[in-house]
Amino acid sequence: MSFASDVRGELARLPAGEICCARSELAAALLVSGGIAWRGRNRYSVTVTAADAAVVRRFFGLLKQHWGIVGQIRTLTGDALNGLKHYQLAVPDGDAPRLLEELRLLDANALFGVRQVPDGEIVRFACCKKAFARAAFLMCGAVSDPEKGYHIEIAAPTEALAGFIAEQLTYFGINVKIVGRKAKSVVYLKRAEDISDMLTLLGAAGAMMAFENVRVKKEVSNRVNRQLNCDSSNINRVMNAAEAQIRDIRYIDEQLGLDKLPKSLREMAYVRANNPETSLAELGDLLIPPIGKSGVNARLRRLSDIAEKLRCGDEIELKAHSGKGEEA
Q1: What letter would DSSP give residue 177?
Q2: How far apart are CA 54 and CA 13, in angstroms?
Q3: Model pTM?
Q4: Where do the domains of the chain lie?
Q5: Phi, psi angle pair for 170, to nearest 5°
Q6: Residue 15 and residue 23: Cα distance in Å, rounded?
Q7: Best exposed site among 140, 175, 271, 305 by fewest CB in 10 Å?
Q8: Burial class (CB in 10 A: 0-12, 13-18, 19+), 40
Q9: How far apart (Å, rounded) are the C-alpha atoms in residues 36 and 38?
Q10: How far is CA 109 from the centre of its chain?
């Protein structure tokens, strides 16, 4: 099973809740999935169709528990479904008008007498807002496997309904975005922290924990890789600098002779040449008397200057002098 299927399965198993929440769930399920069909003269066909049997069974239970309506569950297959199996819950025709009235979805002024978005009373309470968002996700939601990426969305058939879903989520501080995709308006999130918050809000605590485990593992792995890359870069930089210093020392020895250097530079040249992988601080400890890192750096720069002048044929001043408190 996919991560998205696991999330839907967990949500479908949640307790039904109070009748107010059941109204919100059914209203969302019918509107988001386009499950209301006008059959003329105030007659409607009401169905709930989903790819997961557990989702359809949930709405079957809500209908029976709160309204005493026993729907019919059937299996759908065909070319229109790309050979995939879907499950459909059909509400008896005689019960459809009563149910739509109960869900506040009928409006004589709306197209075919059915509202595009429900009456605000259907999401009056915070629990109802959660229920509406949960049902919308159950019917038309998707979430990426966190191993592959971070993305969660609910595809609504109209921009108005997408905006209504977004309002319910924004109420809880989850700031979603909306984008058009073909004939759909998609409510989505891409930040890992926001997706975790949304899973928690919908009630998928187990999926949220699984998501967080993967996210933390990936963040630790990325942090370790960044540190290793940084360390590797630092090591390469130090080694390249050391190689350049040793090349300068060898060039001075070939062209001039290290014995011509002042004592402080001569000692520095021998210590560096014999310890190519040693840090500047450790090189300072090898000198007699020991000097600090800044003193080592000053002497190595002086050696590099001498080598550069030899390459350019410039005059070289070799007498001892002081710099930064150290004889250079």
Answers
A1: E
A2: 8
A3: 0.69
A4: 3-214, 230-327
A5: -65, -30
A6: 14
A7: 175
A8: exposed
A9: 7
A10: 43
- Phi-psi map region of 25: left, alpha, beta (phi>0 left; psi -120 to 50 alpha): alpha
CB-count burial class (<10 Å; 0-12, 13-18, 19+) for 25 = buried
Amino acid identity, position 140: C
Residue with tokens 């050391």: 242
Backbone Cα Rg of the chain = 36
Contact by Cβ (8 Å): 285, 230: no
Name which CATH class applies to 3-214. alpha beta
Instruction: Give the end-to-end CA distance of the chain in Å, rounded to a whole number.
Output: 71
> Rounded to whole angstroms, what are the CA distances from 60 to 37, 51, 133, 190, 265?
19, 15, 19, 33, 89
Least Cα distance to 3 among 178, 215, 275, 194 occurs for 215
The CA-atom distances, in angstroms, between 181 and each of 115, 178, 184, 263 are 22, 10, 5, 76
- Using alpha carbons, select from 58, 48, 55, 59 the residue that is nearest to residue 4: 55
| pLDDT tens, N- to C-terminus, the chain (328 residues) | 789 999 999 999 998 889 999 999 999 999 998 889 888 777 889 999 998 999 999 999 999 999 999 999 999 886 555 667 899 999 998 999 999 999 999 888 877 888 889 999 999 999 999 999 999 999 999 999 998 999 999 999 999 999 999 999 999 999 899 999 988 999 999 999 999 999 999 999 999 999 999 888 887 777 877 877 776 777 778 788 888 889 989 988 898 888 889 999 999 989 988 998 888 888 889 998 999 989 998 999 999 999 898 888 887 777 654 444 444 4
Which of 253, 275, 263 has its CA nearest to residue 326? 263
Helices (H), 171-204: 192-202
Task: List all residues 6 or more positions away from 189 whose beta carbon is below 8 Å from its beta carbon.
Answer: 151, 152, 153, 174, 176, 177, 195, 198
